[in-house]
Amino acid sequence: MSALGPILAVDTSTRASIVTVGRETPLATSRREVRHRHGSHLLEQIDEVLAEAGLTLTEVEGLAVGTGPGSFTGLRVGLATVKTMAYARGLPLAGVTSSDALRAAAGAADAVVVLPAGARDHYLSRVGTDPLLVAPGGLTAAVEGDAVIAVDMDAELLGEAGAARGVAALESLPAALLALARRRLAAGDTDDVAELSPAYVALPRGVKRAAEDLGWSPDLR
Predict the structure, then answer these.
(1) Which of 100, 105, 124, 211 could be disulfide-bonded to 169 (CB atoms 3.0-4.6 Å)?
(2) In this predicted structure, what is the pLDDT of residue 204?
(3) Residues 6+ apart with CB under 8 A from 164
(4) Among 68, 57, 49, which residue's Cα sits nearest to residue 11?
(5) Phi and psi (nearest 5°) for 148?
(6) Which spans in the chain are helix H?
(7) Quick one: which of 87, 95, 98 has its CA closest to 12?
(8) What does the DSSP 8-state code read for residue 206?
């Protein structure tokens, strides 16, 4: 692993826009609370962390991006930006499941990751299963008996322990992203730029899935 040079990693699955650059550990990190405005900050954050680390983009040897689940718009912005960089510079790219990185960051390997999905719904991700969209009123029952990492959520909904894990996970997410991505990249396990896609759980109103493609639907839910 030590032979691999600096990696630039991005995660835009939460209400924070997170960019970090480093080798085994972060050299510089930018985290901004942007809610749904990741696109207004991401490029500036990339310039910021490279400058702080004393690096240029030509010295970056690998790229990583959080693939979700999480914010629909945020994921599109993050993946589009990093995939463009990977294509333009011919850099190896590793997609990292954001919920796995959040578990690693919180030090809770078996915990359920919960994030807001719009105004009232929530995303729920368990180890080894596809993420779910949980409707209002169903969240408490859905996580009953589980340790929870409640990201971007108040303690009133799922308790203080879950909220505390969520805060800890976001704090340590840059290091976790780098560690998970470095493991893959050092082993030559990379993603195809053309095929890497976000782990969407729910699509905006009017959007539907048709086989493996996305299309527009008159059904506005």
Answers:
(1) 105
(2) 54
(3) 155
(4) 68
(5) -125, 140
(6) 42-53, 72-89, 98-106, 139-142, 155-158, 160-186
(7) 98
(8) T
- What pLDDT sits at residue 217? 40
**Residue among 51, 46, 53, 52 nearest 32 (CA):** 46
Contacts of 137 (CB under 8 A, 6+ apart): none
- Stretches in the chain below the pLDDT threshold 50: 1-2, 211, 216-221
Residue ranges of alpha helices (H) inside 90-159 are 98-106, 139-142, 155-158
Residue 16 contacts residue 32 (beta carbons within 8 Å) = yes
CATH number of 7-204: 3.30.420.40
Residues 6+ apart with CB under 8 A from 130: none
- Alpha carbons 124 and 115: distance in angstroms, whole number: 7
CA dihedral 193, 198, 203, 208 (to 10 degrees): 40
Q: Are 142 and 148 in contact (CB under 8 A)?
A: no
Tell me what pLDDT residue 75 has: 92
**Is the distance from CB of 22 to CB of 178 less than 8 angstroms?**
yes
The size of the chain, in residues, is 221
d(CA 201, CA 214): 13
Write out the two tokens for 14.
Answer: 């939460």
Q: What amino acid is encoded at 82 in this protein? A: V
How do 62-66 and 7-11 pair as beta strands?
A: parallel
* Cα separation, 50 vs 45, whole angstroms: 9
- pTM for the model stands at 0.88
